[in-house]
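Reading group handout, session on sequence-to-structure problems. Before we discuss, look at one worked example. The prompt was deliberately terse, the way you'd type it at a terminal:

> structure MATE family efflux transporter

The input record follows.
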Amino acid sequence: MEKDMTKGSPLPVILQFTLPLIIGNIFQQLYNMADTIIVGRYVGADALAAVGSTGTIMFLVLGFAQGITAGFTVLTSQRFGAKDTSGVKRSVANGILLALLFTVVLTFFSMISMRPLLHLMNTPENIFQDAYTYIMIICGGLIATIFYNLLSSYLRAVGNSQTPLMFLIFSAVLNVLLDLLLIIRFKMGVAGAGYATVFSQGISAVLCLFYIYRSMPDMWPEKHHWKLHAADSRHQLSMGIPMALQFAITASGTMIMQAAINLFGSEAVAAFTAACKLQNLVTQGFSAMGQTMATYSGQNFGKGDIPRIKKGVRAALLTSITYSIAAAVLVFLLLKPCLSLFFSGDVDMAAMMPWAKTYSYMCALFYVPLCTIFIFRNAMQGCGYGFLPMMGGVSELFARLIVAVIAMKVISYPLACFCDPAAWVTAAVFTGVSYLFVMKDIDKKYGTKTPTAPIS
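And the output record:
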């Protein structure tokens, strides 16, 4: 079910594409939450803290995988917008082959670095072994994560956001069922949560692959496409590596922040983990809009319609700012009832709430700058600009690093929580200015009017 985003009024086109992504991202968060809720209620608060303490490491590893695969699909989006069917097929095959190579390398290096990384992050001793067990299972199953992200990104690159949603919903339900089976029935603890996540994502990847093969003939590569093409590899790596590094750099900053949070003990880590899960759930509209703008900008850049990209960015900003205000209100209303979902009845919720409220309420005040980062960053990436979005990640890293170091020095939990807002404001300013520069650069190269031929 392809969708040409180069036609029609920008706002309805963007919203039609974004809504399935929001639903899909929410389901993704729900089955991540299922891990933590079931672990917290049936294994214990320490086990929840163990899973939560690996969250930033997972963001580093999985974010790198997500960035590299999203970068590989920018070329597909541009060629689809240019109506280059043969080029679309060739880019799909080339991206799959590159992804296989990166899977081997990333799996190896992530698995050998986990133990020293957990020590470096001040992981509390009483939760260290559970944290190590969980993250090693996730890293061992990276092939499932990488290929689900790659194949679903290919579908979105040609405007199909509904099919990945259906497969993700199926995967989310399967993950919850496996959590219940492995954690409660077979008493596998955090390992059960890890295996459930990997297996359910693997099923999603297989479903996406089968769908493309059977239902998307204009995407499925022919026999002669299955080799590495130098020009396509250069283009895909020139986008994929900066996007992966952007995720890795941002994740490094969140790991520094997690190291600061870990200093306050497993109770603070558990409450912080639960608060983060709620925040991740209500802010999924931001990442969904970012994914939309990558596809929208890629297709319109491939066609050569630069004014339409600018109109789309303005429409996306208006929509996302409205959404961010609603998300902040939800956090203030839902934190207390949602927090109790993560813990069994013997946990003192009165002790947990202050830790969670400090982080959640502080962050909710800064959702507007956060939402702009996704729009500007992905619009630039869709146009083939990878360096400036990556440097936006560097600005986030420095902001988090400075605040986290000060927080650890003065032993201040509120200051540790301020790492995220500080990073968001810094990156919002940087990516906003960068977007203006990129648009000016594109206008200089291609003119302010719609070209008569696709941009190459």
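Points for discussion. First: Residues 134 and 191 are 5 Å apart (CA to CA). Second: The first helix runs from residue 10 to 42.
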